[in-house]
């Protein structure tokens, strides 16, 4: 059957691995007969409103889509779905899962059969900097000609580790200058308390985790230490993933995420119930995309906001992977989910020595709140000084930042008079971060992990910090936020403490207003809540309900 290359599906070039990777060996006969799962993402339905059109319409009506409306408006065309299903059945593949809201179909076959059907030779590769072997292929995935206009992404043939955590601890030679409990940061950044301390409210937030587990003893000890009720932790398995303990790595990330998110929310709403849903997935391109999409279409738990402390430079992804995940973020935003992602801990070059700038994904997605980092000195809930975090000269970390090579400047940036351009050639792109917060481990966060109190930092702490803010604001307003970007960019800095000193180790430096080092700055939580309320009030002017009814959407 004739097959055509799928645009953006190549990670390695045809014929040879990319720099820093090498072929190890062909797959063995036993490996080829092992089951392999792939996720296909289908195109948006021809003739229907696009995700971007729906986002603009719902924003104009201060509304969001219900679960049923998201499926009805944005499920793939019936004919597209049937074409894929018929092709899969004809070729002996098993359908594992289907999610119309995010246009995904998961299939299972043998590794050999899937390699044959998608026109790739699957081999074992290894990155020079790693001892981990992975399955991959040189050149693009190919899809049958009859599906070339239908399938937008095929994820799972390549199972290389895709992301890393953005967590830092103080260097062994340098103790923390000062450290903060999460409620201290909530006070310094003026997070809004909920009326009646949140009594009667059940708040739900999410975290994406690609490794590690929650240790119940640490959960109990950390919140007892702060005098707060602990959140309920609910684990959701994505693609059958069973999280494994990783005491020397990802367990600390998981502890940081739920303690920052949970303690900041509970400090401002101590009588509320908080559930943190942890979406556990494999650390692969397929696993990461499916985790984001699962959170977007989770009709059972319905998180208000989702924190992502994992990421990789844009050139560590395939383009189809970034486009597919961005589509899932847009679908989640239509349901009112707010995503926040760490922008990285190695400066604007992301520790690369090629002389170029490397922004992180998924922080570079235009549908995600990108979280940069600062060095913070605060006393008694008052900020004394705050600068962009950069300790590269000391051999330590620095906040990630930059301009995307994949995503164009979004309308909320250009509408605010911002036209970010890359320092590599001056090409325009989505600029990041959107905002910042304390990430320097020398002025770090207190976290209980593996039975002891530790000081940690990194933009891994800033993502759950903003997720806590969106969760509180949603609880305060009794409605979902979705994408806060349009309202907060239109406010041109109102709601933030401007960071005007420091850089991220390259050409991106802080200045007055938004910049590609710290975004708008660090948050003033109460002011952000006011700006979001004002934006909603403007959108809900005369005729807002009629406008929402014409669009067939539910007022938020």
Total domain units: 2
Over the alpha carbons, how many angstroms does the gyration radius reach?
23 Å
- Total count of strands: 29
CATH architecture label name of the largest domain: 3-Layer(aba) Sandwich
Q: Roughly what fraction of the amino acids lie in strands?
A: 15-25%
* CATH superfamily placement of the largest domain: Peptidase S8/S53 domain
| Average of the residue pLDDT scores | 94
Distance between the ends:
48 Å
Give the CATH level 1 class of the largest domain.
Answer: Alpha Beta
- Structural class determined from secondary elements: alpha/beta
Overall description:
This protein is α/β, with parallel strands linked by helices and 556 residues long. It folds into two domains: 3-155, no CATH class; 164-538, Peptidase S8/S53 domain (Rossmann fold). It is built from 15 helices and 29 strands. The strands form nine sheets. Strands 13, 14, 15, 16, 18, 20, 21 and 24 form an eight-stranded mixed beta sheet that branches. Strands 5-6-3-10 form a four-stranded antiparallel beta sheet, with helices on both faces. Helix 8 (250-268) links the parallel strand 14 (232-237) and strand 15 (273-280). Helix 9 packs parallel to helix 10 (319-334). 57% of the residues are buried. The mean pLDDT is 94.
List keywords for this structure.
556 residues; 2 domains; 8-stranded mixed beta sheet; globular; single chain; alpha/beta; Rossmann fold
């Amino acid at each position: 059957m004739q097959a055509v290359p799928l645009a953006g599906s190549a990670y390695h070039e045809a014929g040879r691995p990319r720099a820093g990777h090498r072929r190890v060996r062909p797959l063995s006969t036993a490996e080829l007969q092992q089951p392999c799962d792939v996720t296909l993402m289908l195109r948006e339905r021809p003739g229907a409103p696009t995700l971007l059109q729906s986002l603009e319409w719902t924003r104009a009506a201060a509304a969001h889509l219900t679960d049923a409306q998201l499926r009805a408006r944005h499920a793939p065309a019936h004919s597209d779905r049937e074409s894929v299903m018929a092709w899969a059945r004809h070729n002996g593949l098993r359908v594992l899962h289907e999610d119309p809201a995010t246009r995904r179909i998961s299939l299972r076959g043998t590794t050999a059969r899937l390699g044959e059907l998608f026109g790739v030779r699957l081999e074992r590769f290894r990155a020079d900097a790693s001892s981990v072997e992975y399955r991959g292929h040189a050149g693009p995935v190919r899809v049958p000609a009859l599906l070339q206009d239908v399938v937008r992404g095929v994820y799972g043939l390549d199972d290389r580790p895709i992301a890393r955590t953005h967590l830092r601890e103080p260097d062994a030679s340098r103790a923390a200058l000062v450290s903060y409990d999460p409620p201290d940061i909530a006070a310094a950044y003026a997070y809004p308390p909920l009326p009646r301390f949140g009594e009667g409210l059940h708040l739900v937030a999410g975290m994406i985790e690609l490794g590690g587990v929650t240790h119940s003893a640490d959960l109990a000890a950390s919140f007892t230490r702060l005098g707060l009720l602990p959140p309920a932790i609910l684990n959701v398995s994505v693609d059958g993933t069973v999280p494994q303990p990783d005491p020397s790595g990802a367990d600390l990330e998981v502890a940081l995420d739920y303690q920052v998110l949970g303690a900041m929310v509970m400090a401002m709403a101590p009588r509320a119930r908080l559930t943190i849903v942890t979406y556990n997935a494999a650390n692969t391109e397929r696993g990461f995309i499916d985790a984001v999409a699962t959170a977007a279409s989770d009709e059972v738990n319905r998180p208000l906001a989702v924190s992502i402390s994992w990421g990789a430079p844009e050139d560590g992804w395939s383009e189809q992977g970034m486009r597919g995940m961005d589509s899932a973020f847009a679908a989640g935003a239509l349901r009112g989910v707010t995503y926040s992602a760490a922008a990285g801990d190695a400066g604007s070059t992301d520790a690369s020595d090629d002389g170029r700038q490397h922004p992180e994904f998924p922080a570079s997605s235009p549908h995600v709140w990108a979280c940069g980092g600062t060095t913070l000195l605060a006393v008694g809930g008052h900020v004394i000084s705050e600068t962009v975090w950069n300790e590269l000269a000391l051999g330590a970390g620095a906040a990630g930042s930059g301009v995307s090579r994949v995503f164009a400047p979004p309308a909320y940036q250009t509408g605010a008079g911002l036209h970010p351009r890359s320092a590599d050639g001056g090409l325009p792109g989505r600029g990041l971060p959107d905002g910042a917060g304390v990430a320097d481990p020398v002025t770090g966060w207190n976290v209980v992990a593996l039975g002891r109190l530790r000081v940690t930092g990194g933009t891994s702490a800033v993502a759950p910090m903003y997720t806590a803010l969106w969760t509180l604001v949603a609880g305060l307003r009794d409605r979902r936020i979705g994408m806060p970007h349009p309202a907060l960019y239109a406010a041109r800095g109102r709601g933030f403490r401007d960071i005007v000193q420091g850089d991220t180790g390259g050409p991106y430096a802080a200045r007055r207003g938004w910049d590609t080092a710290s975004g708008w700055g660090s948050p003033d939580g109460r002011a952000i809540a006011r700006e979001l309320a004002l934006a909603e009030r403007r959108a809900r002017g005369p005729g807002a309900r009629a406008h929402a009814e014409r669009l067939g959407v539910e007022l938020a």
